Amino acid sequence: MASFLTESFLVAGDDPADLVEALGEVASAAGSWVNVEPDVDDSARADVPGIFQWFSARGPQVPVGTFVAGSDRDRPSIGLDHGTGRGAGDRLAAAGITVSEPWLLRQDNPKRGLVWEYGAAGVPPARPVADVLLQGTALFCPLPTDGRFRVAVHTPRR
After folding, report:
1. In 25-102, at which residue ranges do the beta strands (DSSP E only) sit?
2. Helix-strand-coil split of the chain, %, nearest 5
3. Between the CA atoms of 58, 60, 65 and 69, what dihedral angle is there, to the nearest 10 degrees?
4. For labeling, which of 12, 79, 112, 141 is most exposed (least CB within 10 Å)?
5. Residue 54, helix vs strand vs coil
6. What are the residue boundaries of the structural domains of the chain, listed by start?
7. pLDDT at 54
8. What is the pTM of this model?
9. Average pLDDT of the segment spanning 28-39
10. 132 phi and psi, to 5 degrees?
11. What whole-number distance in Å separates Cα of residue 74 and Cα of residue 31?
12. Helical segments of the chain, H only
């Protein structure tokens, strides 16, 4: 079974330098990923409990953005798991949040979220990935936030 090192930290939405740096490091490390979510008061969360989650047509209340590094078999990807229902891609576009070429939209599902795959060779630039993760999760978050985001960087132990 694989073992991972996890580093967690907070970033301000208006100063994502630490997130950009982490994404740059992870982008060339196969098997690594980064999760980003708005920093909300845990007592304000009202996630659907237990088995009822399986029957819900929506994703999590607090959205989670994920960047997964590419490997020999898979291309890098960006995902936004959200609980806002259908038409999330349209809401992103209406808010001016774009994921431009060479990223290719692979999924827009109300329960499983949005997924883009990097359609070019090499490593994607980190700053546009950070922008999508921060702006997308902020847009889809229905709870009050203070502009900070929780970041978790997962890398395989070597």
Report:
1. 33-38, 64-68, 77-81
2. 25, 30, 45
3. -80
4. 112
5. helix
6. 4-41+53-156
7. 45
8. 0.88
9. 95
10. -65, -45
11. 10
12. 17-26, 52-55, 88-94, 126-140
